[in-house]
Amino acid sequence: MGEPYYITTAISYPNGKPHIGHAYEAIAADVIARFHKAMGRDVRLQTGTDEHGLKMAQKARDLDLTPAQLSDQMSQHFIDMCAALNVNYDVFLRTTEPRHHTASQEIWKRMEANGDLYLDRYEGWYSVRDEAYYDESELVEGEGGSKLSPQGTPVEWTVEESWFFRLSKYEDKLLALYTDNPDFIRPEARRNEMIAFVSQGLRDLSVSRTSFDWGVKVPGSDNHVMYVWVDALTNYLTGLGWPEETDAFAKYWPANLHLIGKDIVRFHTIYWPAFLMSANLPVPHQVFGHGFLLNRGQKESKSLGNVTDPIALAERFGVDAVRYFFMREVAFGQDGSWSPEAIVTRCNAELANSYGNLVQRVLSMIFKNMDGKLDTFSSTEADDVLTGFVRDACSVEVTREFAALNFSAGIDAWMRAVFACNAYIDEQAPWTLRKTDPERMRAVLLTLFMAIRDLTIAIAPIVPTAAGKVLDQLGIPVGERGYGALHHAGWYMERVATGEALAQPVGAFPRLELPAEES
Ligand code: ME8
């Protein structure tokens, strides 16, 4: 089955429906998972929902639901989003599952056994209305000089009992982890931020609450629930069946990649490795903090009225177009912006006009002029140059860039190969050769047939549905669709021997249109 590869997304707060940022992260994780599968690895992709904590409890109260009812309703929307975006996860984990409580309590016990948890007092400005603590710096002044939360609710200096995690003990170990494993935090800008943060010194972390009860109970302290991040981060272990000694855990832990957004890098690169070291477990290989997706340069929010439902977006433009656009348009790791016009322009120029049109033209000509039959042919230098160029772009450049999570650069290399095919077809003009030199026309079309196969295999992780359709039309067996297949083509000769013909092609990349009011 190949070397194991375990990738996770953040688990989303289901206190609302999924937004575009959730879709972006899920798509990127799925692309990475499909890429590694196509490279022959034994991949496991985990996603899920983060259902405990104050935010969930507050939202449920606003809606007159129990937190459990709210999470049941809302997590289904995240499952539906994955289906709509063709995100093919192996595990969808919900933190309210009993096995997750077991795992969270087990990691807690191990941290405690290691001497890293102690009871103390948590003090701060607390708003009963918000059920939240605020920093002095966040407070605003109310009437008569009273102190108010940023939400304008009254705050009181409050002292509660809390468990603390000795984070301060892990400063040096964390800095050593970053130095010894330069790829542990990506991209570089995020790594530098975290090194600077830890270098300033770490304070111990309050890891339990007594002010509300929607969470995992602290073992031995029934009036405490765990701080939501302790339980949330543990999801990556729960999904492997830990603390049972499962095959999945032995095979997939430590994770190869935690893919998350830039706002939660601190939790994943400081707290999480410290918890794991404390529990005597190996730390993940890499945490990548991707950028934020903006709508025409603005954050989506209810007040701006620009919140996009990712499922509706996929229905409108097609799931492959949305996936292609996100991976192509945004330099991975940086923030990016989207708009309906940008999706239409990008996908029409590249997917429909350059690549889709090439596929359609070549397959139609083979169907019409060669009865859809493949054959052996002798190639000229021009054919070999094209074949070599396309093969290199697809099997060397695309794979190198995708492996480094440089999706945009990988797709750029792919587009150069598409352009090379279009330049070749114009130069060779097979439509003219049909009358003057049918033998040569066949060689040109079959050279292009092989190039299209390479192009399609290379881009399949990004646009799996359309690529699957094209590979079906080309008659490529399912077992021959990985990157390894780019270097052998035994199936081609088998196909020639059987004489099986290609069916009449149907377009896989429709041109997109904008409704009149948006164009
Ligand atoms: O943070 N663009 O959940 P969450 C891109 N439950 N990504 C975005 C984004 C945007 N506009 N907005 C949010 C949580 N994200 C925790 C995670 S993991 C153990 C616990 C990303 O629902 C965000 O960075 O607020 C995060 O990676 C993911 O969406 C879920 O965010």
Kindly provide the radius of gyration, computed on alpha-carbon positions and rounded to a whole number of angstroms: 27 Å
Let me know the average pLDDT: 95
Oligomer: single chain
The distinct ligands, each listed once, are: ligand ME8
Binned strand content: 5-15%
Shape category: elongated
Terminal residue distance: 48 Å
Question: Structural class of the secondary structure composition?
Answer: alpha/beta
Motif ('HIGH' region): 12-22
Organism: Novosphingobium capsulatum
Protein name: Methionine--tRNA ligase
Enzyme class: ligase
Describe the 3D structure:
Is required not only for elongation of protein synthesis but also for the initiation of all mRNA translation through initiator tRNA(fMet) aminoacylation. By secondary structure, the chain is of the alpha/beta class. 50% of the residues lie in helices and 14% in strands. The chain has a 6-stranded parallel sheet, sandwiched between helices. The protein has a 4-stranded antiparallel sheet with strand order 5-4-8-10. A 3-stranded antiparallel sheet has the order 11-13-12. Bound molecules: ligand ME8. Ligand ME8 is lined by residues 10-13, 21-22, 24-25, 50, 232-233, 235, 260-261, 263-264, 292-293.
